[in-house]
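Here is one chain, start to finish.
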Amino acid sequence: MIAIGIVIGVVLTTGFNIDSKSIAGPEQGKLYTEAQQSPDSDQSTATATNFNPGSMFVDIVKKVRPSIVSIYTTKNIKVPNNPFHRFFREWEGMPNDEGDGQNEMQQNGLGSGIIISKDGYILTNYHVVNDVDELNVKLVDNSEYEAKIIGSDPSTEIALIKIKAEDLPAAVLGNSDAVQIGEWVMAIGSPLDLTSTVTAGIISALSRNIDIIRNKRNAPSSIENFIQTDAAINPGNSGGALVNSKGEVIGVNTAIATRTNYYMGYGFAIPINIAKSVVDDIKEFGEVRRGYLGVYIDRMSPTIAKGVKLNKPRGVFISNVIAGSAAEKAGIEEGDVILSVNGKEVNQPNELQAKIAIYNPGKKVELVVWRYGKQFTVKAVLKGRDNENGKNEKDEKRKEEKSLPDLGMKIQDLSKRELALLDLDYGIIVISADQYSAAGKARIGQGDVIYELDGKPVKSVTDFYDKIDDYKSGDVVRLKLRRKLDKDIFDRLVFLEIPK
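Its structure:
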């Protein structure tokens, strides 16, 4: 009994921290120690006993929390009146003042944001501020401001807003390329209307592609290279900060893996390097200008690696090169493997997309390429696209002028090489289709190539619009589609009804 009493006494007096080595390893201790050192310090190592997560978290929260804001949004929506309400008003002899049968109500939303400049620029998520009527920001000191949207990018889920204020506490933005799995991080935001909430965890994975942007935004050019963390993230955290042990923002909290709409163990943040690139473009050009290589890419597999004489699956496989693209001009060929971009390894298609996406058209990037047993380096000058969704601006303007019906799909011209791969002389490709639209009802989907309309060839997007313009609402058109799956080519006939 005396021995047991001594043990309990030791535990209580040490705050349940019998062995600090069990809390964190040396690398984590080193990160924290470096954050506290001056640049002139000659101390280059630290032991686990120097690492105190409680003290680290407190210091970082004091530094970063004032830079994280709550964003309140309001959207005015119309909803049908309750038919029972109308019945009772008429039954009681009261006047029916329901007008067009709809009532207007307000839909409120809550998100988070990161102050990135003293003069009021705030970084947040696209889905937090998209399509809202009112936008208000609340700082940690409870002061409130009206905000306006400066610009946004649905392909990365990033938005930039601004408030009229001065001398704001701006967050320090870090380098997400230096993030490592296992690092301590904190998520700061306003989950579930609990403003300025802080949670902690580690980086549990990198370069995650969860297809949430493409599926939610119907954006085929979506860029997903998420940082995964087990720090608790819930609705309302969107747009908030993921912070490392140096007090630097390394990510913008965006999504969660869940079956309940609430935290179930893992959250996802957009790397801050991608966010910085988007913000810089919005500030300088008023829009995002994204460079492209012009290649079709696939994930490496053991079979592909063996086929291209790689010792193991690594890099990103090039399945096709677009004619006239930056890649073709740099000498990249079908069957090549891109191993790195500007010295940074890429092993997943989304990693390659994310590395290229941070550069503007005209920028030169250095690529390490593998070609059937040989490794070499090329420099590619990136090109831009007319439109992020693959639409031709002239065709879109012409479409609006003619008031053509919205078929619910985005279409794009094909190069001669792409047509040859499909054994076609003409045709246009569907790059996205809304399942609830006219196209969706006709079972037209992404990847389908339309090459005939009522027996007539479809030679381009413009040609397709010319032909559709001859039909009116309610007409049914017959489309011939072609799709390539692996080595097989399939044709099918569909009927599309022209909507109102």
